[in-house]
Amino acid sequence: xxxxxxxxxxxxxxxxxxxxxxxxxxxxxxxxxxxxxxxxxxxxxxxxxxxxxxxxxxxxxxxxxxxxxxxxxxxxxxxxxxxxxxxxxxxxxxxxxxxxxxxxxxxxxxxxxxxxxxxxxxxxxxxxxxxxxxxxxxxxxxxx
Length: 144
What we know:
This protein is of the alpha/beta class. The protein is built from five helices and five strands; from the N terminus they run βαβαβαβααβ. α2 links the parallel β2 and β3.
């Protein structure tokens, strides 16, 4: 039997790490394959991207992924993926490429313009061809 593939986009915030706890709570460690993903949105300044900033962003993204992978070490298959781009688009693209069965994300806490134009989570929910699970910001594991 093929294991269900679970995509967990994380941005390094404590909030995004809640999705890791959620996955550990609901999926036994031998039941899924995990893809941890970090997407860095590039900001163009006068149509230029500074090479040092790209290198720094990638190093930071890979550190975030390694910390998440360590947290999920009880699972037999945990892959990581870092890329640059618009997070909503990249998450959808990766989900299709990897034949992902479930995307697990946390709600955005962003305000202002992002809320008006729609968050990454909203974009993914609207466009995903698989199950999308949204973890509440205040999710905590009950130890009873």
